[in-house]
Each structure stands twice: as C-alpha cells, then as structure tokens.
Amino acid sequence: MSTKDNGVAITEPVKDPGLPEHLPRPTDVDPAQARRSERQISAMFGIATVLLLAFCVAYFAIDRSETFLGFSASNFTLGATLGGALLLMGVGIIQWAKKLMGDHEIIEMRHAVASSDEDRAAVLEDLNTGINESGFGRRPMIRNSLLGAMGFLALPAVVMLRDLGPLPHDEDKTVWKKGMRVVNDVSGTPIKPSDLEVGSLVNAEPAIMYETDADGQPVLEGTALLQAKSKAAVIMVRMRPEDITPSKGRENWGIDGILCYSKICTHVGCPISLYEQQTHHVLCPCHQSTFDLADNGKVIFGPAHRPLPQLPLAVDSEGYIVAVSDFPEIVAPSYPRLAHDQKKLDEKS
Amino acid sequence: MTDTEYTNIEDTGLGKKAGGPVEWLDDRLGLAGMAKKNLRKVFPEHWSFMLGEVALWSFVVLLLTGVFLTFWFQPSMNETVYNGPYNPLHGLTMSQAYASTLDISFSVRGGLLIRQIHHWAAMLFVAAMMLHMLRVFFTGAYRKPREINWLIGVGLLSMGLVEGFAGYSLPDDLLSGTGLRFVDGLLRSIPLVGSYLESFMFGGEYPGDVIIPRLYMAHILLVPALLLGLIGAHMLLLVYHKHTQWPGPGRTEKNVVGYPMLPVYAAKAGGFFFVVFGFTALMGAILQVNPIWAYGPYNPSEVTAGSQPDWYMGFSEGAIRLMPNWESTIFGFTWSWNIFIPGVGAMGLLFTALGAWPFIESWITGDKREHHLLERPRNAPVRTALGVAGMTAFAVLWIGGGNDIIATKFHLNIYTITKTLRIGLFVFPVIAFMVTKRICVGLQRQDANSILHGYETGVIERTPSGAFSERHAPLPAEIQYTITTHDRLPMLEAPAEADKNGVAAPHSRAAKLRARARKFYYHGAVDKPTVEDVHHAEEHLGEIAGHPVELGDDFQGVSETGVPRVH
Questions:
Q1: ipTM surpassing 0.85, yes or no?
Q2: Which of A63, A232, A342, B510 is the most interior residue, by most CB within 10 Å?
Q3: Does B378 map to a domain?
Q4: How far is CA A239 from CA A191, A244, B66, B524, in A?
C-alpha cells in the first residue's frame, strides 16, 4: 500500500491486492477424499434411481382412497419419492461440481457494451443508403398514405372485439317482483313471520329460483340462475321493533321487526354474511365493510360507500312473507352509470 | 481428475461416431462459432445470484406441470352434476371446470400431486422474482447498461401476477369465484368505461359463461408466451452484458471473475433445477394447498369467512381494504374512488415507480458510466432507505390484506387494525426510511473507522504508567480493498442561477430541482478515507514501538473468551 505507484499519484486509498491465491480442496490433494466424494455422489444418484422405481410401484400399488397420517397415501408417496429423487439428483450434481470439478476461477475481460464508432458510422451509412433508395424522404405522399393505412389497421382489430359481449344494460332490475315470496335459500320453502325469532338471520332467495315451468323445468337455471343470484340474494333478520330507526318512508317496510336486505355488498359484490345480533351489524367477509341493519343498512365502516339496499316486505294471504316490490335502490357494485340508473328508479317510485 | 487419464472427446468411441453428425450440423448451423464464445463463459458466484435462478426454474416446473394439468382440465362453465369419488359433493350441480379439477384431485393418480406442485411453484415463482428484484435493486445492478433488463424484469413481475391470478380463478370453486367477483367490481369501478369492460370481459352480466374459457386461454397461451419471450430476452441480455460481480481483490469493472459455464456453472445451475423441482415436489407431497373440494362450487350468494387471495395479490387486497369509502357523482357519472384508487392505482403506482427508478436515480446522480461491480447497500444510503420504505409500505398493505385473519387469531379489533394501518401506510415507511438511512451511514462510518484505526484485536495492553488500552491492528489488505472500492461522493454545487452578465441560466428550475434531489440523495453519506488519511493511519498503526509484544502476521485477533479469530 503506497500513495505512489510508479511515480503516478493514485486516488484509491487501498491498492488492489489482486486475486487471492487458489487454495486446493481436500479432494484435490487427497485421492482417498476424492474417492469418498465420488462414492457419496454416485450413491445419491443410485438412491434416486431406486426412488423413481418406487414411484412407479406406488403409482400402481397404492389405492387412491388410502390415507397415511391424514395425507392421501398416494399423494404422499408419489410426492416423496419423486421429490426425494429430484433433490438427490440435484444435490449430487452440485456436490460433484463443488468437490470434484475444477475449481480454478478464471478471468474474462469485459468489452464495451456499446458498438464501436466505426460500426455506428457504417450502420448510419447503410441506413441512409436504404432510405435514399426507397425514396422514403423524397416521396412523402407514399410514406404518409402508408403510415395512415397502418394506423387504420388498428381499427379492424379493435372493432372485431365488439362481439366479446353485449353492451351494458341498465341495472335497475333484479328478479324480485311485487308479491314474490321470500324463500329459504337451502330448502326453497316459503317463510312465515313466526318462523323467525328475534336475533335470527335467514339467508333467503326470491321464490322464482325454485319455481318450475309447466314441463317441470326450472324457470331459471345455469348462467341465468347465477346471474339472478348475484343480484337477488337477500338476508332476512328479526330484531326488536323498538331497536329499528327507519328513515322516512321506510316505516312499513318491515313486519314486526323483520327486515330484508340485499346480501350483495355495495363495494365489490361479495355476499355479506357475518351478522352480529347484539349490534345488528353485518360484516362483509371480503373487505370488512360493515352495515347497520337497524339503521337502514347504513355503512358504518369499511370501503363500501352505499348503504345495503332494503327490500320492502309484506305478508300474503297465506301468511308467507313476500316482497312489496323490487329493490328501490341499485344492487351490486358501483359502476359509472349508477347515478343515472338510480335516478330512473327514483322517478319510477 | 488428472490430465494423463483423459482422452480427448474426439478420440473416444462416442466422439468418433458423433463426429459425422456434429460436422453435418455445424456445416448447416455454424454451431462452433457460437459455442466458442459461450462454452467457457464466466459466471461470477454469490448466493444472492441464485434468486433469479429459482424464478427461472420454478417457471420451468410450471410449464411441465401445467402441460400435464391441461390433459384433464376442462375450461367450461357448462353445468354438470357431480358423481365422482368425493362423496360430500355428490349430486351437486357445478361447472365442468370445477368438476374436472375435482377429477384431477381425486380420480387421476398423481393428479393432486401435480396440481399442488403447480400451485406451490407458482407462489415460489412470484416470490423468487420479487426477491431477485430486491437483490438487483439494493445492489444497484440495474444501473447502466442494464436498465432495459430491469424494465424487462418489471414486465415479468407484472405478467407473473396476471398469470398467477388467472390460474387461481380457473378451478371455479367458491374461493376463485370470489376472486372473480372482485375483478368484476374492479372493472366496474373504472371511470366512464367500467360497465363496458365488464360486459365485454364477462360476455354479459356477471358471472356469464365465458370468463373461464377466456382466462384459460390467457393462462395457458397468451401470458405464458409473453413470459417466455421476456425470459428469453432477459437471459440474452444477461449473457451479452455478462453478469455483475461483487467487488473484491482482482475483481474490477473491466473483468468478470468466476467459474466457466462448462463444466462448473452448467452443473451447478442444472443441478439447481432438480433441487427446485424436488423441493416443490416435496411441498406438493406434504403441504396441502388450495383444497378446492373443501370450498365447494362457486355460488354468487355464498362466501367463506377469511377469503384470501394468493399471497402475491395480498398487497392489492390490503389496499382495497384500507381505502376509505370515497365515491362521488360528477357530471351524472358515479366515480368509485374507493375501488379504483387502491385497485388500479396501487398496482399502477408500484410498477410505474419500479420502472422509473433507474432513470430517476441516474438523473439525480448524473452518473452515465457503466457499472459492472455491485454496490453494497450501505454505500447508497438513500437508495437503500427508499427501498426499505417501499418494502414497508408493501408490508403494511399486505398485512392489511389479512386484517380479518389477524383480528381473529390475535383477538384484536378489526377496525382498530384497519385504522392503524391506514395511518401506518404513510407513517411507517417514513420511519423505515430514517432508520435504514441511519444504519447505512453507521455502517459506512464503521467501514471508514476500520480502515483508519484497524480492527480491535481483543489484546489488552498495559502501559508502564498503569493505563489499559486495546491494541488495534490493520485489517487484511483484501478486506481493506473490498470495502473501499465504491465511488467517492461527488462535490455538491448549487447550480448557477444567472451567468456573470445577469442572464438567467436556462432550465434553472429543473436544475434547481435536480440540485435539491442531489442534496437529498447524498446528504449524510460518509465518504471513504482519502489516500492521505490511509497513509497517516498506516503510520499510526505501524508504530510498534511501545507495544510489548509482536503480534505476528497470522494473528487476526481474539474473541472475548480468548479464542483466536479468523477474518
């Protein structure tokens, strides 16, 4: 270490001592060690072969329904033999490289990443010759009309995407109608007010989801059923009538403390389901938006903005709970035309 | 291993037989020219260079297992009634996608194993990409001439997230359907065009009957093709630029020191493929992942409590959960900021910041040189601190994505967690920045001290007057060199606002901004000792007069318990 190197001042405080001397490994100097490593590595490859054969045996021998320590026996054995074999092969190869292959580090010089000035000049020249011969610069009409056509090539590509799906339609309707029964979403049976005790919650659906037509076919099935469910699913709760603070116009939407709300969160549309009967709060398990069912479905926490839409209820002539109308508010996550659709709904009522 | 035993390959029996075909190939492809450059190509070694390899090999595992899964999977939303071997779901109506995934899990032997390897490898793929990117970030490996490869890496990460999410949605179980429900809400929140995007993507009203076949196409064709192309470009550039290396004795900006491709690097990297594959296979054997049969088929009116995306989407999920419920009506349109900002904005911000950083940094530092030596994180304190601040923000969002799980497992109030994280998203990264920068500067000081004052030997000396002191000795030359190879700090000057005739300097606003950024970037960093400092220090440390005992060349200090130390 000196501040002067061949009489020239250097600016680095410490001189490069150069690559450290190569130290031989035990396997380089001791043939016994090398043979030992060789045996070890071959043993790994040998065991791997045995495991791969065991994999094939297990594939045919183990019944899919058998279990082992709570695992599927087939899955465990196949995975353990395959994984074990692969690991042993990998470790063996790496061990081979570390212990027995040459371990002299070598030096390669880097070259400039950029092209040389001559190359750049040559390319420029070729480029100019090409452009010149094409007349690209001299015949702007050809050039511009071609560029224009190229640009318009994007149009068919975009236009062709049009049939990916229909145009969005107004979303102010669900399958709920005046007089449609509220039915249990597991059994499809209609519900009487007396079926609900104070503090209880029922997951419910509109009766149409369980109805069949004259031929005995379901009215709604497949995609249509899923689409209907993703908007019309409801929860029905019963609380003490004195706990409820209905907003103006909603005083008679419930039946003796029975209220019905959309199950679809107004945030991104998860079905809300976690009900706390003491506080009358219902929480969406996806993003924890919390709504107060005693207070018109108001948002009290979380990322949802709009209150849960409420379904007005009544009792039909047979004593079952029915809807008075469709939801007076938009169900499902917000979308750009929501305000517009909501206005239409408000005008209707 | 000895040269005497070795017969050249062209003289072996196999070599003589293969000679003809190889010549035939070379006559047509000119292989030797390419092989000459690359067979003994040097790759430097360091454990952190392995992270990118994990990503590469887990991608290969994904291709292999994915092809296997396509033999049985049916990407259809047509309904079928299940009557397979899994009894609890007997008689249920479900999509063919879900039914065929059940078949892969229960009827195809080894099918569950391959499905689980595929899922674990996917999670490993994204994790390895992220760690690899952190390695590249914190060591400054993205600097010139590698900025384009960094951008390709950012593209790979974003494509990886899309690919993972598409795959997560395919089985059409209750969990993956809930994920799609979220995507639907996210699309709808996009201002003005949201409903159109939803309708075109889902082929009508949610959930429609085309989203799974479409995602399947994206998952097995479109995105993998993009990933493959980007990986190819990433590797080609890696070979062309030659790998970066850590500074050390004999390792400079002009060379690359390491093991040759053939045999050592090929063996280590190739062997590592088997290790990654074997590791994911063992995970598939003993760690259950995504038990779709426990969730049931998708039903838009059901959801399970504790629904979670795969880990790499957790930060996005957290952003959605932490966002306040802002929504406004402007010009008769509804603007769902509560979904759009965290859903599209957080992702966009992350990838924009990542893509822009190399260019922002080189604009601040004005550094246009090529860099092939890695920088120790401590020697770029502000970069390191910004990186840790970014990681902290990511972590806050990620924790936010699991706020319900944390609330139930630790019996905490979910609202308190959410409110704390809302504030924490802005406060914790600032704290992390300050703490990290302090640690970096402290480590730089320690480096400078160990050059100027040597290391503490653990040898206590007593002067004739009775005073005790600890003996210091110079560090080995290799270490001294390694910790002083980084660049010296630049001189910081205020930009001239006007020339001597009073004419305002052009672009002085940009110049002032840049000067402020430079000041921020270099503030507090400790420069390495100068040549003169080291010269003085050598003289000081070299004064052995007054030391009662010569320590000897091999001595490297002792520990508190008197055990000799080795550097």
A1: yes
A2: A232
A3: no
A4: 16, 8, 52, 64
